[in-house]
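Fig. S4 source data, part A: sequence.
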Amino acid sequence: MIGLVLAAGAGRRLRPYTDTLPKALVPVDPAGDGSLTVLDLTLKNFAEVGLTEAAIVVGYRKEAVYARKEQLEAKYGLKLTLIDNDKAEEWNNAYSLWCAREVLERGVILANGDTVHPVSVEKTLLAARGDGRKIILALDTVKSLADEEMKVVTAEGKGVRKITKLMDPADATGEYIGVTLIEAEAAAELADALKATFERDPDLYYEDGYQELVNRGFTVDVAPIGDVKWVEIDNHDDLAKGRDIACQY
């Protein structure tokens, strides 16, 4: 099993940082000098749970990630493979994850490149392996939800029933935080579902690919992460929260 980071996004709401950097390289250190980024935190988590390799899907401002590749490898003791997404500025991330379909065949812990979270999330997912579970989503069942969150409805013994931003928050079991454990056995079916998803509409999310799997009868499981501090960084308010959280990890 290896790590996988989706870091192809532009993050236009984080300008001026993202005029020259992909969202995953926006600084989250308190000083804002670039010594710590979401990508740093994620790779650190991967190394802490014993992974020795990771792949990073790059697209927008990918040259910034290429420039830091050797430094990141040395800093976290990980062998890194960069995967180019040629449509990063045109299509949404269902296609981005599909670009890593060969990596999925090794089994991965997938993390979005804009999610600041503690290593306890990866540990929770690894502890939930077994009993035939092939895809396990990290789920926050504590946080109060609003319209923007990626909401999940589960059913006892059946896993995920629905995953979308487009639902009444009151109906949701919790929020998917952007970290998933994907076993190698799920790779082919997930890749096919992602392809069907972006071919239907290239603006769809990879979570819509998860929904496609569920609609086909595939069981997608969840693992509640407990009461932990994390944030998805979409804008400058989120960035301020991310910096507060990052200094704790």
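Fig. S4 source data, part B ends here. The mean pLDDT is 91.
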